[in-house]
Design brief:
Shape: elongated
Number of helices: 13
Number of strands: 5
Helix content: 40-55%
Largest sheet: 5 strands, mixed
Radius of gyration: 26 Å
Structural class: alpha/beta
Strand order of the largest sheet: 1-2-3-4-5
Distance between the termini: 46 Å
Order of helices and strands: HHHEHEEHEEHHHHHHHH
Length: 324
C-alpha cells in the first residue's frame, strides 16, 4: 500500500463512525447476514486488538459486531491506488493470521476456543477495474493428489467506481452516498449529492461528527479544481442558496438572450440575409434550451419537486414539465 496522505486519512476517518460501517454492512453484504447483525454492538477495535505485529496497519479499520450469538471481526482495508494490487490475496491472508495471533497474545481470546470469524473487505477506488483474484487459492498451483492443502482465504472487494448505487442512495445509505460522491461526473452533480446528503444528516444531531468528517473529505479529496472554486455542501445553509442563485441567474440570462435573438431576427431584412440570421438565431436558441433542460433535470434528479423548481427559477410549471 502506498504512502498515506491527508486525503487518505480523511477518508478512513469516515469509516471510524459506526453509522458508516452499519450502512456498509447493510448495503453491500448478504441481506440475511446483515439482518442478523446487532449494529448497536459495533465497536472499533484497533486500539484493543492491534499490537506490534500490526503497527504498520494502523490506517486500516478493524471492527467487531455481534451476529446471532457470535462475534465477527470486520477488517476493512482501504486502497487508495490507481491500479489493483496483485499482492492483495497474500496481504489478506497475512493480516488475518496476525490479527488472530494478536487476539490470543493480548488475552482477548483463548487459543483453546474456536477463533472468531474475520470478514476482510477491500474498498478500492482506482480508475482501472479490480482484476485480482478474490481468494489466494486461485494464485496457488498444487498437484491434484494434495489439493486439499491449498488454502482458501476469500475477501470481498467493493469496487467503488463501478457500483450501481441509485437504489441505495435513495434509501439514504451513508456508505453508498460516499461512493456516489466519488462517482459524480461534474461539479454540479457533486455539489447536489453532497447537499442532499448533508440535508439528510442534519435531521439527526448524532451524525454531526460524521458530517464534519464528510466536510473534511470533501475539502481534501473531492474539491480538486482550484481554478473552479466549489462550495462545500457540508458547511452551512448558504451554499445551496448560492448555487440556486447561480442557476436562476443562468436561466434568466438565457431568457434575455433568447428575447434579444428573437427581436434581432424579426428586425432583419427579408430574403437571404434574413434566412441566414434566423437560422443562426434558431441554432443559438436550441443550444440555450438544451442548457436550460440540463439544469432543470439536475434539479429534479436530486429531489426537488416541480413546484420548488418553479418557485426558485420563476419558470411556469408547465414549461418545466415540458422541458424535463
Amino acid at each position: 500500500m502506498g504512502t498515506i496522505t491527508d486525503s487518505d486519512h480523511s477518508y478512513k476517518r469516515l469509516f471510524s463512525h459506526k453509522e458508516m460501517m452499519a450502512d456498509l454492512i447493510s448495503g453491500f453484504l448478504h441481506p440475511e447476514f446483515a439482518s442478523s447483525c446487532d449494529f448497536a454492538t459495533l465497536k472499533r477495535c484497533n486500539g484493543s486488538y492491534v499490537t506490534d505485529d500490526l503497527r504498520d496497519r494502523e490506517d486500516d479499520c478493524i471492527w467487531s459486531v455481534r451476529y446471532d450469538d457470535r462475534t465477527l471481526i470486520i477488517y476493512l482495508l482501504i486502497e487508495f491506488q490507481s491500479t489493483p494490487d496483485p499482492t492483495m490475496p497474500i496481504r489478506i491472508m497475512s493480516y488475518m493470521a496476525l490479527l488472530w495471533q494478536d487476539l490470543i497474545r493480548t488475552g482477548r481470546h483463548s487459543a483453546r476456543r474456536p477463533l472468531p470469524g474475520i470478514l476482510p473487505i477491500v474498498l478500492y477506488n482506482g480508475e482501472s477495474p479490480w482484476n485480482v483474484p478474490d481468494d489466494i487459492g486461485a494464485n496457488i498451483l498444487m498437484p491434484d493428489p494434495i489439493l486439499r492443502f491449498r488454502p482458501s482465504v476469500p475477501y470481498l472487494v467493493v469496487d467503488e467506481l463501478r457500483l450501481s448505487l441509485h437504489h441505495l442512495v435513495e434509501t439514504r445509505n451513508l456508505a453508498a452516498s460516499l461512493f456516489g460522491l466519488e462517482q459524480s461526473s461534474g461539479n454540479d452533480d457533486l455539489f447536489l449529492l453532497g447537499q442532499r446528503l448533508n440535508a439528510w444528516m442534519k435531521k439527526d444531531p448524532k451524525l454531526d461528527p460524521l458530517r464534519g468528517d464528510f466536510s473534511l473529505f470533501f475539502e481534501n479529496t473531492l474539491k480538486t479544481d482550484e481554478y473552479k472554486p466549489l462550495p462545500n455542501p457540508f458547511c452551512g445553509e448558504t451554499m445551496l442558496a448560492e448555487k440556486v442563485k447561480r442557476w436562476t441567474a443562468e436561466l434568466k440570462a438565457e431568457a434575455i438572450a433568447e428575447g434579444k435573438a428573437e427581436g434581432k431576427a424579426e428586425g432583419k431584412a427579408e430574403g437571404k440575409a434574413e434566412g441566414k440570421a434566423e437560422g443562426k438565431a434558431e441554432g443559438k436558441l436550441e443550444g440555450k434550451v438544451e442548457e436550460r433542460r440540463t439544469i432543470l433535470r439536475r434539479m429534479k434528479a436530486f429531489g426537488m419537486s416541480i413546484g420548488e423548481i418553479a418557485e426558485i427559477t420563476g419558470l411556469p410549471e408547465d414549461e418545466i414539465r415540458h422541458l424535463i
